[in-house]
Design goal:
- The complex is a heterodimer of chains A (111) and B (115).
- Chain A is 0% helix and 54% strand.
- Chain A has 111 residues and is mainly beta.
- Chain A starts with a strand and ends with a strand.
- In chain A, a hairpin with a 4-residue loop joins strand 7 (62-67) and strand 8 (72-77).
- Chain A has strands spanning 4-5, 10-14, 19-25, 32-38, 45-51, 56-59, 62-67, 72-77, 86-93, 100-101, 105-110.
- In chain A, strands 2, 4, 5, 9, 10 and 11 form a 6-stranded mixed beta sheet that branches. In chain A, strands 1-3-8-7-6 form a 5-stranded antiparallel beta sheet, with no helix packed on it.
- Chain B has strands spanning 4-7, 10-13, 18-25, 31-37, 44-50, 53-56, 64-70, 73-79, 87-94, 105-106, 110-114.
- Chain B is globular, with a radius of gyration of 14 Å.
- Classes of the chains: A mainly beta (111), B mainly beta (115).
């Protein structure tokens, strides 16, 4: 039973345009959400996070939006760059230290 | 450069071998984790050491055994593995101090192939 879902396994975007990656969750006990970026043969690296008390968090080109009522979050990358091409994992956590990961979305940014 | 160091980066072993994966962090983090990641799948939690106390994912077979010699080191001992255990094994750590955000710092992983 997947508690965190990323329904789009892949996304292709033109350089300079906006990339929007989506994530849905089912567990209402989750109170912190994170996005990780992963290149092949490397470990995931933390990108941006958001607490459930907020609905938006921005860091440079990256913005995460949280819609608690819909149990949905999204990552916006503007403008997209070829170096952003990677697999992006959404993750969520509640009480305790356990992160639950979504299945990942492969983003390809075309020059 | 990651601040979580994993060795070896690549390991090939037979099903009768005994080997170990090692992980080290010097960020003063008090929680360390082992994750297993198969191709095109998300990382799956195997073990957590929090303040050197072990929590186990009950679905992990006993041929994997973790060891935490101290708060900076985490080993994963491998014995009698199966070919389906071939995967990328990721070590991670995070701080448990005030302001805990859930952010994990991952190592680059150890790519394990079981023949």
């Amino acid at each position: 039973d997947q508690q965190v879902k990323q329904n789009s396994p892949s996304l292709s975007v033109q350089e300079g345009r906006i990339s929007i990656l989506n994530c849905d969750y089912t567990n209402s006990m989750f109170d912190y959400f994170l996005w990780y970026k992963k290149y092949p043969a490397e470990g995931p690296t933390f990108l941006i996070s958001i607490s459930s008390i907020k609905d938006k968090n921005e860091d440079g080109r990256f913005t995460v939006f949280l819609n608690k009522s819909a149990k949905h979050l999204s990552l916006h990358i503007v403008p997209s760059q070829p170096g952003d091409s990677a697999v992006y994992f959404c993750a969520a956590t509640g009480a305790g230290n356990m992160l639950t990961f979504g299945g990942g979305t492969r983003l390809m940014v075309k020059p | 450069d990651t601040e979580v160091t994993q060795t070896p980066k690549h390991l090939v072993m037979g099903m009768t071998n005994k080997k170990s994966l090692k992980c080290e962090q010097h960020m003063g983090h008090r929680a360390m984790y082992w994750y297993k990641q198969k191709a095109k799948k998300p990382p799956e939690l195997m073990f957590v050491y929090s303040y050197e106390k072990l929590s186990i994912n009950e679905s992990v077979p006993s041929r994997f055994s973790p060891e935490c010699p101290n708060s900076s080191l985490l080993n994963l001992h491998l014995h009698a593995l199966q070919p389906e255990d071939s995967a990328l094994y990721l070590c991670a750590s995070n701080t448990l101090s005030g302001g805990y955000t859930g952010e994990l710092f991952f190592g680059e992983g150890s790519r394990l192939t079981v023949l």
